[in-house]
Amino acid sequence: MARDRIASSSHGFGLRVSFISFWICFLPSISLAYRPGEIVPMSKAGQYHASRTPWHDLIGRHCPIFAVNVEVLIPISKPTGFTGADPYKMVCGLSPFQISKFPDTISFQVGHEKFYVPWLYVINRKSSEVPLIDFHLRYSGNDLHGVTAKVIDMPHHYIEAHPDIRKHFWDPENWPKYVLVRYTWEEQSEIDVAGGFYVLFGSGSVSSSIAMACTIVVGSLSGIIMAHSLGLAVSFILAIYVLQSSKEKLTRFVRENVAETSMPGGVAKVFTTKTPSPIGRSISPLQPRVSSPAMAAIAAFSVCSPLPLSPRPGRPPIPPRRPTAPANTLEAERGVEFETGDSFFRRESAVGRDLGVLSAALHRRSLPPGGGLRVLDAMCGCGVRSLRYLAQAGAAFVWANDASEGCRPLILSNLSGHPRFSPQGDRSWVVTHLDANRVLAENYLRKEFFDLVDVDSFGSDSSFMRLAISTIRKGGLLYVTSTDGYSSGGHRPHCSLASYGAYVRPMPFSNEVGLRMLIGGALREAAALGYRISPLFSFYSYHGPVFRVMLQVDRGQLHEKSRYGFISYCHGCGNSQTFSWEELGQISCACRKGEISKSVVVSGPLWTGPLHDVTYVTDMLQLATEWGWACTNGNEVDLEKLLNQMIGEGDPRLPPGYIKLDEIASRGKMNSPPLSTLINTLQKEGYVASRSHIAPNAIKTNCPIAECIQFARRIRCSTSNRR
């Protein structure tokens, strides 16, 4: 009899374990679909006069951004055969979900559920107002649960702020039409309290039934106790599993919905939360969250439960939501559109980006067949340079990195217009948010080298220089930046010494010294690694100021006669000279007859060679002409003038520095002659002379300043005699 009872008990326990396993296998799993700030892909189609357009994927800046309210302008192209007689309907679907068309609706599938959105009348609808498409998206956690859309009249404050909207929209000849689309997200509760308690109470009922059956079979007090204990164990295990699988959601739920209170037993309170509002606007309606005794029970259990309610160690925390760029930050450079948002962006730096794209395209042409151009944009900002390297320079792969993770939605939006994968299945671009030195070091350790490394740094940060050089392929390009005008002006010599290894003193051509300081610092770092560099072009822009230099990196030791030395300037006579390392003890000025004078200042070591490679810049000018960039086009910069000035500056016979006409007039005590007249005169006398792209009222020449003053005086005299 005892054996039979033990066997029956064992058999009941086996049934109970099987029952537990059966229920656990069918519990729903938690899956992550989106992170806040990520783009939700979307496609659209139109219908006019019983004909429908194919589905077209929207670019990133036109798509909704998960959990972020935003307003965008979506262009609508003129449909074929449009006469204005029939209404124009449009429909949008979230992709890459499965899409199927119905006579008047669109169906798109998210997971195992379908949400239906009717066709939206956009043009020639029953209203004379400008339409606004209002999307309402519902989500919880990382899952999208539904979407509805409707066309409403554009609010009057939009019309008042932009009075031309109505005129352009209803003009039958003005295409494409731009429709304002508003995406509003509503967060819903992630905890199904009723369903959870149904499971718990249901499992308790089943456990009680099993306990009664075991009691009848066993028929003893010990059997009853054992059966009830097993029933409680089943309920407890199920409760633990439910809480464990949903602990992240439960933690957030308790934090947002249950208030801490000192009252005995704890009281759950009802809270109201505002719907997230678009940028620059506020939505007043409040949506109350559900509160019930069941929630209070869950909250009390979560406080008493030994289960940790913190996120799982293996899962990265969800970053805080960050608003995306306002709709009015749309920019365009050479036909490429992008958004800047609240990232640091300068329109004046477009010239430097133009030069970088031209250089990258030339380098791509020089690569062997089958070798695609690989670019690393170590400090990409909003991603405009990365986008232009892909779209205009034809880069096969671009690594876009920025230390600020808050820029991720903006960068993804800008790059989403370019395919993420090539037809061969290779990645075309990737976005990371790491320190620039870490990205460079990790790629170097993995032996993943790049043809072009672009580091658009701020100030005099040169800590990346050595790692950037190590990450470049043989013969590759390094595009470096400095914005430290104080150091180049000689006002912080110890800073320039620490950053670039050059002690810089004040000189009248300080902006050119800034370029030579940057090249010299890169040359020093390259020589320590067994590389040699040569500048292809050097560009100065007054805003900032900004110093940008494109360098070619190759294997080789620093040559004994390299152009890496010192530059002197005499405040007494205005003469400047270059000195090598061997001549350090012989620095003086001819006006002092070899004597030591405080009027002579020395800066260095710096790059003392040409700032540009004439052949290379000539090829850049030809490519700019092919692309239509050479001549002025609207607000674009005339690159033909700039590149021609660089070609003139690149003559290897020209010494460092330039002479301003103001200095000639001041030292000669006369009015300065026209710049072009002085340059022509010097060239006729056998000297090399050209304009400087750094200072518009200065010349670069190998003629001493004393003789330049004599030529200038002669020009003024001849001009006066003609009068």
UniProtKB/TrEMBL annotation:
GO terms for biological process: tRNA N2-guanine methylation. The keyword Coiled coil does not apply. One of its GO terms (molecular function) is tRNA (guanine) methyltransferase activity. It comes from Musa troglodytarum (fe'i banana). SUPFAM superfamilies: S-adenosyl-L-methionine-dependent methyltransferases (SSF53335). Belongs to the class I-like SAM-binding methyltransferase superfamily. Trm1 family. GO terms for cellular component: nucleus. This is N2,N2-dimethylguanosine tRNA methyltransferase. It comes from the Eukaryota.
